[in-house]
Each structure stands twice: as C-alpha cells, then as structure tokens.
Amino acid sequence: MSPYTPLSPFPPYFPFSPTFPSLQYPIFPLLSSLSHLTSLLSSPLSALTQLISGGSIVSAEAVWDHVTMADRELAFKAGDVIKVLDASNKDWWWGQIDDEEGWFPASFVRLWVNQEENTAVETVEGASPSPSEVQNGHADASPSSSDCLCQPAQDRDQMRANIINEIMSTERHYIKHLKDICEGYFRQCKKRRDMFNDDQLRVIFGNIEDIYRFQMGFVRDLEKQYNTEEPHLSEIGPCFLEHQDGFWIYSEYCNNHVDACMELSRLMKDGRYQQFFEACRLVQQMIDIAIDGFLLTPVQKICKYPLQLAELLKYTVQEHSDYRYVAAALAVMRNVTQQINERKRRLENIEKIAQWQASVLDWEGDDILDRSSELVYTGEMSWIYQPYGRSQTRVFFLFDHQMVLCKKDLIRRDILYYKGRINMDRYNVVDAADGRDDDFNVSVKNAFKLSNKDSDEIHIFLAKKLEEKLRWLRGFHEERKMVQEDEKIGFEISEYQKRQAAMTVRRMTKQKGHRSVPPGYPPPMDPMNPGQYLVGDSMEQSEFEFPEPERCKSPFWQSFSRLTPFRK
C-alpha cells in the first residue's frame, strides 16, 4: 500500500457526498505512514488477527458516524473508541462499545497509533485506555502523567517517535493534497471562463491558496525541528505557537465550505462539469476521490491537530524540553477549533437575522447583515436622548457593531416598528450611579449611558431591575470582545451568503403568506450566572387572542430573542 493512499476510502454505500463535519472530530479518512499500521493493513489482516487472538486489546477510533442499517450492527459516532474483537473479515469487523457488540465497517475507523506490534497493546502497559479512561465509548484526550510514567522509557520514547513520525508524514501528504487542489483544480477552473465566473470560484475554493502558502511555511519550520535520527527528541511545539495566528485563516475556509458543497452539488447536475473535474483529477494524477473529498481535507486537517497534539502530550514526559510547548500548542489549537465552531454557528443563524429584519415594519437604511452577524442581547428599557430629554420605552436589539431600536405597536404588541439604530463602534458605555444625573437633570436608577467618542451626544438607558442593567453591561462587553475577535481573524459574511439568506427569507415568506416564525431557540444565558437560562421581565411569553387560526403563541421578535445564548 502506498503511504499516500488513505487507509479508509469513502464507505461504498455512503449515500451522499460528505458535507461540513462536526469540527470536534474529522470525518474524512485519516492518513498514516506508521510502518506497523501499514503492515497490518496491507497484509491479509493476519497480524491484526494474531494480536486479537493472542489476547491483546486492540482499539480503534471512529472517524465516521455509523448509523446502523441492519440487525447486529454496532452504532457509534465519530470519536468513539471501539474495542476490536474480530478482524478476520477485511470489510466488516466485530467490535464492542461498553456492553454492546456488533459488526461495523472497517473503513469507518482507524487503529490507534499507540498500538505497537510487539509491545504496547496490552492494557497493563498503558497503550489502550483503561476503563476509567473510556466512558460510554469516548476516550479522554487529556494527557495522563501516570500513564506516561508507568511505561518503560524505551517504550515511551517509541510511542512519541511514532506520533511525531505520523504528524510529519500527514503534513507532507497534506501539502500534496493542497497542491493538487490549487494546481489540479483551481488553476484549471480559472482558465475556463465559459464555465466558471469569479463568484463561483470564490465560493467553491474559498481561500485555499492562502492556506497552501501558510502550510508550506509551517511544514518548512516543522522539518527544521524534526530529528530524523531520534524523532522522540524533536521539538515541534514551538512551531505551532509561532504560527498560531496563521491557523485562523481556516475559519474563513470552514465557514465557506457548506456553500462550496452546495455550489458543487448544483454544478454536478450538469454532465459537463462532472467530466471536467474528472479530467482535472486524471491530468494531475490524483487519487480516486471526487473534488468535494479533496475540498474537505482542510476542514479535516484543522480538526485533527488537537487530537494529534493531545496524543503527543500523553507520551511526552514533563522533563522533556518540548512538554510545555506541546501543552500550550494543544490549548491554542483547541481554541482555534472551538472558535471555528462558533463562527460556523453564527453563519447558520444569519437566515434567522434576515428573517427578523423582514418582520420589522418601516425598516430604513442598510440591512443588518451588512455589518452584523450575531444577536448579543435584547430587552425593553426606558431611553432618554439628550436633545429631547423625555423618556421613551423601546425594545433594543444589540448586535455586533450596532444596536437597533424598535417600538411596539400600541394595539398589536407583537408587531415592531423600526425607530433607528446606534453605531456601537462610535460609542463608549458608561455606568451611571443611582440618583440625580447632571447631564439630563433627572433622577435615575439602574441606568447606564452611551457616550459618543467624537461629540457631546449622550444616550441614557434605564433598566427595570439592577440584574437587567448588569446583563446589559455584560452584553456590551461581549459585543466589543466579539468585534475584536472578528477583526483578528478576518471574519465576515460573504455577499453570496447574504444573498442566500435573503432568498431563503423571500421564499419562506412567499410560501407562508405572512411573517414567518422561526423554531424556538434556548433563551439567552444569564451572563451573571453562566449556565442558567433567563427570560427577562420585559420579555415574558404571552398568549394572544386574535382570530387568525395559525397565529403563533409568542411574537416573532420574542422567538428571535432566543436565537443566541450568551457566551460565558
């Protein structure tokens, strides 16, 4: 078997092309160049069967979700750890998770890299997770110093060397994948202006060329740190830390990947595009995987880093010069994948934001999505604007970059009218003490102000309760934090995504014939008590007694207020 060939191809009965995976675990088949794994899988599985029959514990990690399609099949999710009990059949293995046993496709899993042919498959030697490490089929990826210390130094060094070798091998193969995408597909597509316009190329390939350039620099630095004679002495942790800011470019690619799959699916209905992409693959001498499989590899790669680093840290003693760097790199890469997940969630919510805007009457000015992508907090407060000096009750919707002011209809309290917006980039939030306010010459309680950075303009807001005021102050803090993080990684909604959201809203409105109501969402999390959900006094659910037969029990804007939970 060539080391470039994936250990597990797409499952033969998988009914559709892979779309955006969960970012916690990769679903694309994982690559490995470990000699012992290659020999196990290139032989007629006799070596693997020998290990199992000899009483060794052989574990495999699921890289695909497996939904059972027949009796006696073993269901699992990506990331589950399966004890392999019988591998005599090359396509279907018999395995166990907790107390359940059954058949599962061998192409859905990969053997753990810390299973050595001659040594460390026995539980007592620490190669496989102990019962305390595996609960409900899930392995704890956090390092255990006791696991590392109880192993002989020679075995431990060999484990670390194997993981280092796998990281280096997969990085080299990944570079070839990126080169094939850029030169084999992207470059050829740009030549065919009769088939692809600039918008289509941007949607399908995203920033793949930027990723290619970044990865080449990253791999060059990895090669410098790689000790070919004694791989276990390699110090690769600093490379991840040095390039940590560069990994954020994956956020844009991952956020765009769903649109890329949709566009490819649309094009593939035309036989010309099927023939074109297949011709590109053959000319570039790429392996037999469709273009959507190649375009998935960057998504899979950024997900794989935390798994690899967690396993590397597990077999790195604290005295090793690389230990603290690997630990820091693991924290960094986990944060990257977590933030990519968060950005993906926000993009999935933009249709709801466009839908909310369509429900607000008398809208003026730019669309919300032109500047914002997240509802941070919402509620009803009294508001005084300095030139007028009189209090008005408004419903406020705080998004990133802006806060929208709406007024309830006097009779139909579920209807909102647009009354303006405040550009949050131009204002500072100032706490106001209870008592007489000098700027407005009024008595205030539970108040705060928005002060214009460039003028004397001031707005004062009065919440009903102190708890509500504190939630708003926390909301403004979260909004600024979000804006800074977005600027750091270059997060923005593409014009294509905005058009898709607008088209979806128009289609839904046309089909239903009235303002549509999104499904219920969890209410915002209480920023003062993380983990506890809240519905403010001004946002309580209420039933309406109007005669429309399909009328929703709660107004659309109330449902919309549940869209995004407060982050901790």
TrEMBL record:
Domain DH: 159-343
Main localization (coarse): cytoplasm
Alphabetic keyword roster: Cytoplasm, Guanine-nucleotide releasing factor, SH3 domain, Synapse
PROSITE patterns named in the record: DH_2, PH_DOMAIN, SH3
SMART domains tied to this protein: PH (SM00233), RhoGEF (SM00325), SH3 (SM00326)
Function according to Swiss-Prot or TrEMBL: Acts as a guanine nucleotide exchange factor (GEF) for CDC42. Promotes formation of GPHN clusters.
Region (Disordered): 121-148, 508-534
Residues of the signal peptide: none
Name the UniProt record assigns to this protein: Rho guanine nucleotide exchange factor 9
Gene Ontology molecular function: guanyl-nucleotide exchange factor activity
Occurrences of domain PH (ranges): 374-481
